Amino acid sequence: MNLIVNGNSTDVKDGLTVEGLLKELDIEPARVAIEVNMNIIKKVNYQEHLLEDGDSVEIVNFVGGG
Predict the structure, then answer these.
(1) Res. 65: pLDDT tops 80
(2) CA nearest 62: which of 43, 38, 39?
(3) Which residues in the chain belong to E strands, given as ranges?
(4) 17 near 51, Cβ under 8 Å?
(5) Cα(65)–Cα(51) distance, rounded to whole angstroms?
(6) What domains appear along the chain, each with residue ranges and CATH number?
(7) Confidence at residue 42, expressed as pLDDT on a 0 to 100 scale
(8) In the chain, alpha helices (H)
(9) For position 31, what pLDDT does the model report?
(10) First-to-last CA distance in the chain?
(11) CB 34 within 8 Å of CB 18
(12) Is the Cα dihedral 20, 21, 27, 33 positive or negative?
């Protein structure tokens, strides 16, 4: 299946959840916010939110500073 992740075309296996995508990309779920097709996905739903072919996913990293 093909996703658009942060503006880049990315091929991933079918039936992937948001949590699965983050694992595949080696991204720590606690440190990001996820938007799928312009809808913010709550962290509690990462495990069950299935991604579909053609979905647009934005992964935003939290950056600390002061």
Answers:
(1) no
(2) 43
(3) 2-5, 8-11, 32-36, 39-41, 56-61
(4) yes
(5) 32
(6) 2-61 (3.10.20.30)
(7) 97
(8) 18-24
(9) 87
(10) 40
(11) yes
(12) negative
Give the model's confidence band at 66: pLDDT under 50 very low, under 70 low, under 90 confident, else very high.
low
Spatial distance between the Cα atoms of 54 and 43, rounded to a whole number of angstroms: 22
Q: Using CA atoms, how far apart are residues 36 and 4, in angstroms rounded to an integer?
A: 10
Quote the CA–CA distance of 53 and 55 in Å, as a whole number.
6
pLDDT digits (tens, 9 = 90+) for 15-51: 999 999 999 999 999 989 999 999 999 999 999 999 9
Cα separation, 25 vs 62, whole angstroms? 16
Q: What share of the chain is helix, strand, coil (3-state, %, to 5)?
A: 20, 35, 45
Give the percent of the chain with pLDDT over 90.
88
